[in-house]
Model the fold of this input.
Amino acid sequence: MGTEMKRLFLGSLVYAALSGAVPAEARVVLRLGTMAPKGSSWELILRRMGAEWSEATDGELRLRIYAGGTVGDEGEMIRKMRIGQLQAAAISNAGLAEIDPAAYALMLPMMFDSYEEWDYVRQQINPILEQRLADKGFFVLAWSDIGWVYFFTQSPMHTPSDLVEMKLAGSHTETRTNDIFKWAGFHPVPISNVDTMTGFQTGLIDSIYLPIILDEGSQIYRHAPNMTDMKWAPLQGALVMHEKGWTKLSTTQQKDVRRITRRIGADLRRTNRDQERRSLEAMVKRGLNVIEISDDALEQWHSVASRAYPRVRGNLVDVELFDRVQELRDEFRNQQANQP
Done:
């Protein structure tokens, strides 16, 4: 067991001990939903976070985690936070976009080529998103990585014309994400997470877009054993708490929770990119076929994605923010090009 996994495992043991020792004394129980698979490194980190919340508040706070989408998809988690059934959630930018479409600005298809340029842009864009979400009652406690989104398909896919012929799994709640695919010329099939496996088995769908770590955790690659080696879009995650849960905490508790969560989020960002690589290696060993594409095919993908930009700009993402993202990306690329 590696050093990081040992630390996560010990953290989860501490969580188990604390949560077993103080349930009667805990003044506040915070319920958190996440799509992260149960037992995944993400869930272990969330458990460690909960243990530290409890320890820092002398057992007054207890975190209860509902992993693997057991309380619904991200749209449902947002609804449950609004009505008080959940107080927090670890969700992706796709989920945050259901609260404020500005979150799409950092997950536009083919906008970014590397983590380095994406990091450069989001350092300045995330504070804007935080304020917009706070204005709507959702407080971002920490940002994290989920990873690059790739296409996983039943038959090999190289070019956009290949995907046009496929039945692409789309969210049954994130209609705006489906719209982006439609604007790019594809045909998403709305389907819930719980029905995805059945959808592949019955032929309702034959392709899907997912981050590598979620694909391994969900075992989708066993039904869609081809991965096109092309970074469609980066996906970040956030741990958010609704104001109904946040206001239950004292000022001191809020400071402790924010301090611990931001440090945990930084840990998750550091470990996630290595986990992405390890997950891909593990799936390849189990039979995943990674499909390399030519420079010409890559240019076709860029062209297709660009066709959707005019529909996103000013519709889903306001013009000023959309243009700022492109400006920052180009600024980074120019800096890299001018380095000696």
User: Anything to note?
Assistant: Residues 1-24 have pLDDT under 50 and may be disordered. Strands lie at 28-34, 61-66, 88-92, 138-153, 168-171, 188-191, 207-211, 226-242, 289-291. Residues 3-333 form a domain with the D-Maltodextrin-Binding Protein; domain 2 fold (CATH 3.40.190.170). The longest strand covers residues 226-242.
